[in-house]
């Protein structure tokens, strides 16, 4: 059975690892999970899944091993801005056959890690689109509201990833057009900038002018995505707006949560990706550009980086 290293053991990493524990509880096996963290964590990790609590067992590593310890799968579920930190685990955990799954927001998973991998290692890298509503609590436990949805390219590597989660509750979809799938998710994430800008929950979209701003951000995202090679159908814009207006009003997306808590935000991986794709194709993205500029200015101030 495989050895799986999880780099980034926050809400997403913990809930993902819970899938392996669920399978192990149902059918005992020798799957081994390594929790790779900067600071010690308490194990097992309690994840309250949609069907009840799961105590996720694993070995906690707080620094890369001094000697090579190659794993079968390396799952990276850090924030998108922690690429350099995640890469410090590569020399000791990556072997010639290690598969790397990047479970992060945005559409640039492969591009983020390419500078830290050889050409051969890049062949084993799998970008993963994730939709897994979960929250890490102060006591270290994780509350998972629904089963995770993972979308991966429909390739042999993607099929191997799907097999990892068989009978785990997680839903892994093989996408024949992963780029479009990822950009569709980014449309929703990009619109979340209005909550981060205002520090308000999802209900902010009901305030005067906010629906129009959200509409414009999503419209720019679709245009930039299609220019980058995605094939987002015209009616998808209205689908996104319906979803944004009907989601729980008191909910706060992860970027807004980080903004309120004065933590670093993933704005560059979300709205920043829209800007970069737009620039390459000559597609204007003024609303996304404004969101990134203002949020980065706010972040610089509360992180003490402003001069």
UniProtKB/TrEMBL annotation:
It catalyses: (R)-pantoate + NADP(+) = 2-dehydropantoate + NADPH + H(+). Its EC number is 1.1.1.169. One of its GO terms (biological process) is pantothenate biosynthetic process. One of its GO terms (cellular component) is cytoplasm. Keywords: NADP, Oxidoreductase. Residues 4-152 form the Ketopantoate reductase N-terminal domain. Residues 177-298 form the Ketopantoate reductase C-terminal domain. GO terms for molecular function: 2-dehydropantoate 2-reductase activity. It holds the Pfam family ApbA_C. This is 2-dehydropantoate 2-reductase. It is an enzyme of class 1 (oxidoreductase). Gene3D superfamilies: N-(1-d-carboxylethyl)-l-norvaline Dehydrogenase, domain 2, NAD(P)-binding Rossmann-like Domain. Catalyzes the NADPH-dependent reduction of ketopantoate into pantoic acid. The keyword Lipid biosynthesis does not apply. It comes from the Eukaryota. The keyword Transcription regulation does not apply. Belongs to the ketopantoate reductase family.
């Amino acid at each position: 059975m495989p050895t799986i290293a999880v780099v980034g053991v926050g809400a997403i990493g913990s809930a993902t690892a819970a899938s392996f524990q669920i399978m192990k509880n149902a059918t005992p096996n020798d799957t081994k999970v390594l929790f790779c963290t900067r600071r010690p964590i308490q194990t097992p990790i309690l994840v309250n899944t949609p069907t009840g609590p799961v105590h996720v067992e694993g070995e906690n590593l707080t620094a890369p091993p001094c000697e090579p310890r190659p794993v079968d799968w390396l799952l990276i579920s850090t924030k998108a801005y922690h690429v350099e930190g995640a890469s410090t685990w590569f020399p000791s955990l990556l072997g010639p056959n290690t598969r790397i799954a990047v479970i992060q927001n945005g559409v640039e998973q492969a591009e983020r890690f390419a500078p830290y991998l050889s050409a051969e290692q890049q062949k084993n890298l799998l970008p993963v689109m994730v939709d897994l509503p979960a929250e890490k609590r102060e006591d270290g436990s994780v509350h998972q509201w629904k089963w995770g949805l993972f979308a991966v390219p429909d390739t042999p590597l993607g099929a191997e990833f799907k097999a990892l989660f068989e009978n785990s509750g997680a839903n892994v979809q093989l996408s024949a057009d992963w780029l479009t799938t990822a950009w569709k998710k980014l449309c929703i994430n990009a619109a979340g900038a209005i909550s981060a800008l205002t520090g308000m929950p999802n209900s902010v979209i009901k305030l005067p002018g906010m629906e129009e701003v959200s509409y414009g951000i999503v419209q720019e995202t679709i245009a930039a995505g299609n220019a980058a090679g995605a094939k987002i159908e015209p009616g998808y814009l209205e689908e996104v707006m319906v979803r944004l207006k009907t989601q729980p009003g008191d909910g706060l997306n992860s970027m807004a949560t980080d903004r309120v808590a004065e933590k670093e935000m993933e704005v560059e991986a979300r709205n920043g990706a829209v800007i970069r794709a737009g620039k390459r194709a000559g597609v204007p993205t003024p609303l996304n550009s404004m969101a990134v500029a203002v949020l980065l200015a706010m972040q610089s101030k509360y992180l003490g980086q402003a001069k």
